[in-house]
Structures are given as structure tokens and as C-alpha cells.
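Morning!

As promised:
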Amino acid sequence: MGNILSLKNIVKIYPNGVMANKEVSVDIEENTIHAIVGENGAGKSTLMKIVFGEEAPQEGEIYYKGKKVNIKNSLGAIKMGIGMVHQQLMLAPDLTVAENLILGIEPLRYGVFLDLKKITKLTEESSKKFGFKVPLNKKIRDLSIGIRQRVEILKVLMRNAKLIILDEPTSVLTPQETEVLFKSLKDLKHHGKTIIFISHKLKEVKLIADKVTVMRDGKVISTNDVNQLDEHMIAHMMVGRKINFKRIPETKNIGNPLLTVKNLSYLSEEKIYALKNINFEVRAGEILGVAGVDGNGQTELVEILTGLREATSGQIFIGEEDISRFSPREIREEKVAHIPEDRMKNGVAEHATIEENIIVDRYYQDHFSNKNLFLDWKYISKSSNELIEKFKILAPSSKASILSLSGGNIQKVVVARELSSNPRIIIASQPTRGIDVGSEELIHNLLKDARDNGIAIFFVSADLDEVLKLSTRIIVIYNGEIVAEFDEIKNVTQQDLGPYMLGVKKKGE
Amino acid sequence: MGKFILKYFNLIRAVIAILIGIIIGVCIIYIISKEPGVSLKSLFLGPLLSKSRFGNFIETASPIIFCGLAIAIPFQAGQFNIGAEGALFIGAVVGTAFGVSTNMPAFLHIPLVLLVAGLTGAFWGSIPGFLKAKWNTSELVISLMLNYVAYFIGLYLINFHFRDKAAGYLVSYKLPETAWLIQFIPGTRIHIGVIISLGFAVLIYYFLYHTTLGYEIRTSGFNINFARFGGINVFKVIIIAQVIGGFIAAIGGMTEVMGVHRRFNWQLSPGYGWDGVVVAIIGRNNPLLIIPSSLFLAYLRVGGKILNLLSDIPAEMITVIQSIIILLITAEAFLAGWKYRITVREAKAKEVGRT
């Protein structure tokens, strides 16, 4: 079979000077599932945005169905039969599924009125034709992420896409939802569609793809048939060296509870209980992992623990002291470090320099300033440069702006600040989200060292591999409640956690 | 070359914007003036052609510098308080009222009058600051509205309670000589206030970049979530930045009264607060860059007045030039393509160098 899409020598440079694609060439065969894998920042998403017309390349050619094309925008791509499902789903939450599906291609009566009958008919037909069952009359906001994603895929299909790009579709799904998705993708292949599947989860690639292209550092390393490679070979190509999937060794010295949460509840501004009667404790020298699909109360919980939000009821203790009403500064002075889930929102000021970012929790302390009045920039630079070296941050100097760093290095700045504050407790939320494997491993090792030094670590992550790799104990959060606790995790697998994360199982059941 | 341009891009951009503004101004003058030579000479050389005009140029820069600083501090804190005009006006009114009603030696009188004016301005700045910190109201809208409140309260106080009926026009009583700022260059009205404004610029620069409070202000402006996350009391910062801004604007107004007119004679709001917004933008909120920006704007202002007097072009011409400059400096896209092309070239060169 011929190639539906050929990319030749694509070069893309972003306005901040990052060269995301360096002469990338890939051929996508028609009617295959083609995986593109690579670490975060390898250039996969950029390449797909170019195919979908969202970014313009500086150099290179695109051939679609054998003809050279110039894709100006996403509308042009859709017209040609290219569809894309983004990582962040792009649906209108207040409209129904059917309304979302026909958005932009509405059938009209008299040229102005929506033809409701036809809408129902059209959407029902498509749903049946592709075997995508979706609740047509429900509002998007009431649906789970898995269903929303199906709506998004169906939307693409209704626009007659021949080539469908899925950007990390499984990153927001539970293992069970992923299975359903994969079955649908195989059906679509039988319908004659071509699918480009972006991922960095190698198991999934082995499971579903026919071909796999490995990208690293903006370049294509190789394109192969999937059955010619095993997971370890792909992983090796992705990072250029061996990586460690193994659980970290168990902890030896577990001490007294340092962080205790009692009957904590939080009523959100929408008058919904985002957290319901949460109880747990974290002991010195252990990592308590929190597993859960994003948006089940983890954000609120972390913000309450760090003083950024006030709980509606319940208490938080550090040791014996009740800190429920403490300000962020008072909590930091109790030696609590916080690695925030959204580093660009909370973790850094991107236009400020590295050293200005590092001193945010200590600028008023001795050495950094003189009696909390005058800053000592010499001392600040010296201590910042020491951290840059110790945490292997790739930066020209401590006076470089955060904006000039890559995602992984920005996260290292955050981690360097928080771990160098000499904490007793670390609250880490998604500490490795969106960063390269090398930085991820460094951060994992740092957390392990902190644990072995007797620090209590509260660790939230949506990445189950990571939760299983690091945790001493695990709690699962669903819809603001702790639905399961695993004190012994030796034999716990992803499949065990999935039903709890989805809310189909509760503790004791 | 490419690296140099990237490093000083913002400065180069500002200079190009200023040049384009001036070029368009020149073109318009050529089109509408019967004697373009005379007009251009008045505008661009006018302020240098006599001692008194040069004095005008320098003394005009002084309140603009004050107001630029007054705007830059809240701006650096991410607070769009544009109330410098109101703080300047009400501060000068209350300071004048205090000055004409008290008698003491100069070494006490001058600082006390300035302090009273400054505190009034600080209070004025605290209103939008407090409302923002407490109830998240828009400091932009509140400070803008308060400008009018300040104006009318000020006029009421001067015209009904401190009016010098002997003067024959609507002005306050004359300040006692103990509250005068000395004019120290004969033949001009250049006064001590000019020196004070330069001193303030240096002081505020040091304050913003070398003190912990300055760091709190700038960090809150960079990213308020980050500041709160790091433990900074942003409630305090939001208010303090606007209080300091109001204080400085009011000092600016008061020095003008004490150094130039020696009595309160504004029946119209003088507009320095708005010039402050302009120079803060041109100087990118950097206190040291606000000095040359203010000199530039003051030069245009005085040139514009001379233009008005000696040629057939109205002074509003300056507003046209000024608008074009502000438009170009604030338009993010202006020269962004050029910068992008240089970035691409540099990135490619780096890549070639590596492999």
C-alpha cells in the first residue's frame, strides 16, 4: 500500500529559539496505526501540529496522498481529510454531545435555523456507523474524560477524516478506558482509516501499533515495524541509554507521623464537595503516593496542605501543631516544601531570573538579605550557582531568565529550591509531568534520598508507573474521597488501582 | 550582530518606535504647514534656542519623572493604577493648604509641606489598593474615577477656602517664602525639585532592585500566584505599591507648586499623571530609564508649545507623535517577525556549530 502522508526534511524553530524539529522525514503508510514515540520535548507534538496546519515549518515538504501540499491552517487540514484529537480536549462543556459533534458543520433550515431533526439523525448515524456509542443528549461537562475523548474522535470522523492524529490519548485515561479506546482504534483501521498515535508509553505502542517511529532531540532515530522491536529496544532508542523501570528499594527507617490530616472537607465555589472527609498520615521516612485521575480533588488537597486554600472543615497537624489556619509563609517556616503541579502557574515567575526564582521562599532570611531590608545579590548568586551545579540545571548562569530554559530544567529549578530549603515534609504534586526521562530519573532519585534521610513525602501523580515506582504506601482518590488504601504495595499493579480510580470499586468491596 | 540585537531588542525597538513617530510627525508638518522649515525648527530645536526655553524643558521633565516613578511602582507590582494624576492634584492641594496656613523656618517648612502632600497622595493611592486587595475590584477603573474625585475636591478646597481674592484670578494664596524651593539657575525657573526628582529615580531604582520589599513588589508583578506560593503577603504588596506610587506623585505635584508657581494655580488638571503613564511605558518601568524618557517627552512638550506660538501648526501635533510611539511600543507584534527571523538564524547557527 502507498503512503498517505510523507514528511520530508521538516525544520521548525519556535520564536524562543528552540529548534523543535531538525530535518524530520517520516512516511505514514495508508491504513496502518503508526506510533510516534519519544520523550517529552522530542518534537512529536510539534511535528503533528505542522501536519494539522497549526504551526508553519521553516523548511521541508509535506506530501499528502502523493501530492505536495501546503497546509495553511487546521481548516485546510480538515478539508483534506486530516483530523486531530489534542491532548487537551477541545469541546464546549455546556453544549450537548450532539451539538459538539455538529459544531461548524450544522445542518440548517432556511439558512438560519438549526435543523434539529437532521442533527439527531446525522449524529445517530455516525455513532452507529463507526461503532462509537456516546450519550448524544448529555452535556459534555457531565461526562467522564474517556467518553469526552470518544466524542472528540467521533467529531473528527464526522468530518470525513482519512488520517487521524491522536496526541497522547491515553495520558488522561485509566487502564480500563485505555482498553476500550484501543478496541475502537482497531475498528477504525478496519474502516480503512490511518491513525497516527503519539505516546511515550511503550507497552501501549507494542499493543496497538503496526509501525513505530522513534524521535529524540528533534530528530527521527528510526522507523520500524513494531514486531521487529521489543520495549527495551524502543526505550533505548528513545533516551539513548538504558532506563530504570524498577521500583525503588524499600525504606528502612519509618518514624513517627509528621503530617496528619483529620476529617478534612472542602466545599468548592460551585458548592460541590471537592474533598469529603479526608483522613491520612504521612510518617517520617516514607512516601505516601496518591493515585487518581486528574481533577478528583488532588489539586484542592495539595493547595489546602500548603496554605494556598482554606479547608471548609477538618484539621491538619504537623507533629502536634494544628496548622489548619496557617498562611503559606507560616507553613513554609514549619519546614514544608511544595513542588506544585503546575510549575508555570505556581512554581516559577517565567520572566524573572533563576536566582530571583530560587529566593522566593528565603529572600528575607539571614545571608540572603540584611535584616529583611537589603538584598545581598552576591550571596544570592553564589548560592544559586551552587544549586545550578548540584541539581545539574542546564543554564548559562543564575542570571538567565526562566523563559530561556527547557521544561525539564525549569522543573529542576523548582525542585532545587524546594529540596534545598531543608524540609521535614515535602508535598510533591506531579513532580515529573512533562519533563524528559533524564530529569525524571534525577527527581525520582532525589525524592528517594530525601525519604532515606527521614523526610515525610506526600506524593501526588497521575502517572501510575511513577506512583508504583516510588510509593511506600498508596491511597487512591476518586471524586474527593479516599476510596482505597494500600499499605503493602509489593504485589499491587496498575490493574489493581484502575477500578478504584474510576469509582467502580470502593474500599472494603 | 544577531546576539547583540536579541540582547538589546527592547531598547532598539523603543528607539525605532520613537524614530518612526518623529518621521511621521515631520511628514505631517510638511504636508500641512505653509512654512515647514520654521515649524520643524520650532519643534526640534526650539527648546535649545534660548535659556528660558531650555529652563522650561528641564522644569517640565521634573514632574513627569515623579509621575513616571509613581506609575512604574504599581505597574511593576502588576497593578494598573493610573491614579498618579489624581494623587498629584489632591496632594498638591492639601500640601498648599498646609503651607499657606503654617509658619515655620524653611528647614522644617519645606520637608513638612512635602510630607503632608506625600501622605495625602499615599492615602489616595491606598484606596484602589485596598479595594483591590480586599475585594478584587479593578484598580484601573477605581484609580481612573478617583482622578475626577481628586480634581473636584481639590478645586473646591482651593476656590472656596484658600483662594487669594486679591490675585484677580482663580489661584490659592501665595506660599510663604519659607516653603519655596529655590530656583538656582538665573534666567530660568529650574528649581531644587528637579534635583529631588533625579534623587527619587535613583532611590526608587535601588528600592525596587535591592531591597526585600522591592523584590516582593516585582515578584508579585511577575506572577502573583508564584508570589503567594512562595509565602509573600500579596495583600500587603498590592496596597503598598499603590501607596508609594501615590506618595511620589503627590511630591511631584507639590515640588512644582513650591518651585515654579509658588501658589496653587491649576484650574485644569495639569496632565503630568498621564505623561507619567507614557514615560513608564517607554522606560519599561525601569526608574533609571524613566529619566531619559521623561526628558524626551518634556522636550517634545516644550517644542510643541513653541510650535504653537511661532508657526501655523497646533501643539496637538505632539499628541500625534506621542500616540504613534506608544502604539508601536505597546504593540507586541511590532518587529516581532524581525526578532523571530534573527532567532531562527541564531538557532540554526548554533545547531551547525554543534554538529
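The CA atoms of residues 128 and 134 of chain A lie 10 Å apart.

Hope this helps with the figure draft.
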